[in-house]
């Protein structure tokens, strides 16, 4: 569902047609014009260097889109981004292996303490909103409208093998099949906080850091239920049904307004301050991220922040240079 590719191709085609129409323009003029355009787009001279990140699979689609577009602006900067989950990303960030860490939850106190112990100063930047989306198989026509209390009853481990009829006697007397993000995932942590409230997740759940595994699992079993980021639902809505929570469906509007509560949440990038100061390529990539994260978030299925939040982030970034 990489809509940004379409936009880039359209722009490139338009540029090609324009150059073709200007028959009097020499090759040298065209080259100079292209160079000027590239410099104007980047706002700086061409850079070289490497940038490394890791973290949340939920934030990953936004970052992947940004990396792909940034390569057209700064082709000599190599940006690599792993997807080991929010917790796994913070582990690498603490170990000094990455310049930035994507997160689908705020950093934990123990992670802050580890970073302080390692002498790593960092800055938190918000990049988008997400609505953690609960999904069922399209053949499931009984559990499409759930309450927070029912979600808790469904997902909290209670030592029994649960059937749908245990949640509501009018539902099928069939065993529930669970799919959940792995324990290193910020999505897991967020669900744990707002739904489980610290209780153990259903032991029977299949856990995976790969959201595509969860999508396929729910899509292939009429008794399955799972949860993950809103973008992954949008990308697969032809084979999944999104559950309403306390009568509210996840949409761009309900997620941005906070009406889709308690499953609306901000998404973050945590940047290493020393890397921003010492690595010009990283600073430039973070600047590009904050300037374009809203557009890219919308392109891949998330919800952009108010413009003033990105402007606030850019001012904070400028103060770190």
UniProtKB/TrEMBL annotation:
<protein>
    <recommendedName>
        <fullName>Phosphate-binding protein</fullName>
    </recommendedName>
</protein>
<dbReference type="GO" id="GO:0006817">
    <property type="term" value="P:phosphate ion transport"/>
</dbReference>
<comment type="function">
    <text>Part of the ABC transporter complex PstSACB involved in phosphate import.</text>
</comment>
<feature type="signal peptide">
    <location>
        <begin position="1"/>
        <end position="21"/>
    </location>
</feature>
<feature type="compositionally biased region" description="Polar residues">
    <location>
        <begin position="45"/>
        <end position="58"/>
    </location>
</feature>
<dbReference type="Pfam" id="PF12849">
    <property type="entry name" value="PBP_like_2"/>
</dbReference>
<feature type="compositionally biased region" description="Low complexity">
    <location>
        <begin position="31"/>
        <end position="40"/>
    </location>
</feature>
<comment type="similarity">
    <text>Belongs to the PstS family.</text>
</comment>
<comment type="function">
    <text>Involved in the system for phosphate transport across the cytoplasmic membrane.</text>
</comment>
<keyword id="KW-0732">Signal</keyword>
<keyword id="KW-0813">Transport</keyword>
<keyword id="KW-1003">Cell membrane</keyword>
<dbReference type="GO" id="GO:0042301">
    <property type="term" value="F:phosphate ion binding"/>
</dbReference>
<dbReference type="InterPro" id="IPR050811">
    <property type="entry name" value="Phosphate_ABC_transporter"/>
</dbReference>
<dbReference type="InterPro" id="IPR024370">
    <property type="entry name" value="PBP_domain"/>
</dbReference>
<comment type="subunit">
    <text>The complex is composed of two ATP-binding proteins (PstB), two transmembrane proteins (PstC and PstA) and a solute-binding protein (PstS).</text>
</comment>
<dbReference type="InterPro" id="IPR011862">
    <property type="entry name" value="Phos-bd"/>
</dbReference>
<keyword id="KW-0449">Lipoprotein</keyword>
<feature type="region of interest" description="Disordered">
    <location>
        <begin position="27"/>
        <end position="58"/>
    </location>
</feature>
<keyword id="KW-0472">Membrane</keyword>
<feature type="domain" description="PBP">
    <location>
        <begin position="42"/>
        <end position="290"/>
    </location>
</feature>
<dbReference type="GO" id="GO:0005886">
    <property type="term" value="C:plasma membrane"/>
</dbReference>
<keyword id="KW-0564">Palmitate</keyword>
<keyword id="KW-0592">Phosphate transport</keyword>
């Amino acid at each position: 569902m990489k809509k940004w590719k379409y936009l880039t191709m359209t722009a490139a085609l338009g540029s090609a047609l324009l150059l073709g129409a200007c028959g009097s323009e020499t090759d040298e003029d065209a080259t100079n014009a292209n160079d000027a355009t590239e410099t104007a787009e980047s706002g700086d001279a061409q850079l070289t260097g490497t940038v490394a990140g890791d973290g949340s699979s939920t934030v990953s689609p936004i970052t992947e889109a940004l990396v792909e577009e940034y390569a057209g602006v700064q082709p000599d900067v190599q940006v690599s981004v792993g997807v080991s989950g929010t917790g796994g990303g913070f582990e690498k960030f603490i170990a000094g292996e990455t310049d930035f860490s994507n997160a689908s939850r705020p950093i934990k106190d123990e992670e802050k303490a580890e970073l302080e112990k390692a002498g790593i100063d960092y800055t938190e930047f918000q990049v988008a909103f997400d609505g953690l989306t609960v999904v069922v198989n399209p053949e499931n026509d009984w559990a499409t409208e759930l309450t927070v209390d029912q979600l808790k009853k469904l997902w909290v481990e209670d030592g029994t093998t649960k059937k749908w009829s245990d949640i509501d006697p009018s539902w099928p007397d069939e065993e529930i099949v669970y799919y959940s993000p792995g324990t290193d995932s910020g999505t897991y942590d967020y669900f744990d906080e707002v739904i489980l409230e610290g209780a153990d997740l259903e032991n029977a759940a299949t856990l995976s850091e790969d959201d595509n595994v969860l999508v396929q699992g729910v899509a292939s079993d009429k008794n399955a239920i799972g949860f993950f980021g809103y973008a992954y639902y949008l990308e697969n809505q032809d084979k999944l049904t999104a559950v309403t929570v306390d009568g509210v469906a996840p949409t761009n509007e309900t997620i941005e307004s906070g009406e889709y509560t308690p499953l609306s949440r901000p998404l973050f990038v945590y940047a290493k301050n020393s890397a921003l100061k010492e690595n010009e390529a990283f600073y430039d990539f973070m600047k590009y991220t904050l300037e374009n994260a809203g557009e890219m978030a919308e392109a891949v299925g998330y919800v952009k922040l108010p413009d003033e939040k990105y402007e606030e982030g850019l001012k904070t970034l400028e103060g770190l240079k």
